[in-house]
Amino acid sequence: MRILLTGAGGYIGKRLLPVLTGLGHDVVCCVRDKQRFAGSVKSGSNIEVIEADFADPSRLPEPPEGIDAAYYLIHSMSSSISNFDELEAVCAENFVRFAEQTGCKQIVYLSGISNDTKLSLHLRSRQKVGEILSLSKIPVTIVRAGIIVGSGSASFEIIRDLVEKLPVMVAPRWLNTRTQPVAVRDVISCLSGVLLRKECLGKDFDIGGPDILTYKEMLLGYARVRKLKRLVIILPVMTPRLSSYWLYFVTSTSYKLAVNLVNSMKVEVICRNNDLMKLLGIEPLSYEEAVRLAFERIEQNLVLSSWKDSLITSSDDKSLSEHIQVPSYGVFTDEREIAIEGDADKVLENIWSIGGNRGWYYANMLWNIRGFVDKLAGGVGLRRGRTSPDRLTAGDALDFWRVLVADKEDKRLLLYAEMKLPGEAWLEFRINYDDGRASLLQKATFRPNGIAGRLYWYSVLPFHYFVFEGMARRIISFRN
Predict the structure, then answer these.
(1) pTM for the complete prediction?
(2) For residues 239 and 221, what is the distance between their CA atoms, to the nearest angstrom?
C-alpha cells in the first residue's frame, strides 16, 4: 500500500514510520522542513518526503497520487496557550481538501479521549478536528488515546522529572484525577492495525491500558519501578496558574505546554470501551510494564523519538533552514581555533556528546545559572537535555539550543539558540585540516536586536573569554 504520513517528524510519526515500512508499505512523509527530517530517520527506497505546511495553503505541494490511506498526526498544543484550537481546525480543513485529491480510501486520526462532560481547550480541539475530518468524503478511523507512556513521550518525561528530582512533592489537586495510561507500543500497534480494515472504517475507538490510575498513583507507580521512596502531598488550593508554573520550573516542559497540560489533567481520561485492542488481538501493557520498558530503551540508548525534538518550544519559526546560513554582517562573534595534537576523531566524539548529562565541558555552574535565568524569563532552560548521549540530528533539542546541522562527514555541528535573548545566537563547532594538521574551530555568533541586544552582548563579554576558551580546550583534551 501507499501511505501518506503527516506529522512524520513528530513523536508518534517517527515511531510509526519504521513499522509501516517494515510491513512493506510505501510511505509518503509530509514534513514542514525536509532538511530537519532527513537526518532523523533512516531513508529507504520505500520512503518519499514532501514539504507541506497545512496551516498555510500556499505552502502545500501538489497532492501525491495513488494514496491508499493517510495518517493525520498533526498537533499544535505546544504552539500557543489560547488559539491553538483555531490553528488545528485550519490544518484539518486544509488536510481534508489535500487528501481528497490523492485517491485516499481511509484517514486514520490519533486523537485524545474526550468522554468527560467538561473538556479542556486541548481536548475540545482534538474533538473538533475529528468532526472536521469526519465531514470528508473519505472514511475516517479515529483512535482516541489517553496518557501515552513511553521513552521520550511528554507524559513520561514529566513524570520522570518530578519523581527523580523531588523526594517530597507538594502537588495540586488535579493529581487526584483518574486517567487510563497506554503504552506507546500499544498505540503504534493500534494505528498500524486499523489500516484499511473494514471493521474500522468510519468508526472511532478509545484505547487505554489495563490500569485506571490517578496521576498521584502514576507518580508513585513510577517510583516503585525505580525503587525510589516518594511522598506526594496534595494541596487543594493550588491554582491552575501555580500548577502550570510548578510543572514548568520542575520539568523540561515549556510554559505553553504546561498550561495546556494542566487544563487537560483536570479532566478524567477513561475509555468508554477497549474494543479495538480485542479486535486486533493486542494484550495491552500495564502502566508499570510500560515504564519499565521505557527505561530499558533509555538505558540501551534506543530512544526512537522525543517530544522535545518534535517542536521548537520557544520559537514560532516554521523552518530551521531559515537559520542555517549564519549571518556575517551586523553581528558580534567570538571565534577560537585551537590545534588538535591528539586524535581528531575523539575530539569529534566530544563535540557530538556536548550538553545533556555531560554538560558543556567548562564552567558548568555558569551554564546552569544561565539556564535557570532563562527559565525565569519564560525560556526553555537546560532541562530538555538531549535525546541520545552520543547521536545528534538536525532538529534535535540540545538543552536550550536546537541542532541546525549535524554533519559528521563534514565534521560540523551548528546550533541555534532557543533561549530568551534580545537577538539571535548561533554556536558552531568544526574540525578543519591544513596540511594534514587538524584544528578545532569554535565560533559563537550573536545578531543583536537593537540597543538591548548590544547591551546584552557587552554585559556577558567578560565571561566569554574564559568560558568559551575553557570549553574549546576541554573539548580537545576531554577523555572518558
Answers:
(1) 0.75
(2) 25
Give exposure, 362-401, as e/b (b: 16+ Cβ within 10 Å).
bbeeebeebbeebbeeebbbbbbbbbbeeebbbbbbbbbb
3-state secondary structure of 357: coil
Residue 306: count other Cβ atoms within 10 Å of its Cβ: 24
- Sequence ranges of the domains in the chain: 2-305, 330-477
Which is nearest to 267 in space by CA: 147, 171, 111, 130? 147
The answer to whether 2-305 and 330-477 have equal CATH topology is no
CATH class of 330-477: alpha beta
Beta strands in 146-265 (DSSP E): 148-149, 168-172, 178-179, 182-183, 204-207, 213-214, 231-235
Q: Which CATH number is correct for 2-305, 3.10.310.70, 3.40.50.720, 3.30.950.30, 3.30.1850.10?
A: 3.40.50.720
Q: What is the pLDDT of residues 270-298, one digit of tens each?
A: 898 878 999 999 999 999 999 999 888 77
Q: Show Cβ contacts of residue 102 under 8 Å, excluding neighbours closer than 6 positions.
A: 4, 63, 64, 65, 66, 67, 70
Strands (E), 158-303: 168-172, 178-179, 182-183, 204-207, 213-214, 231-235
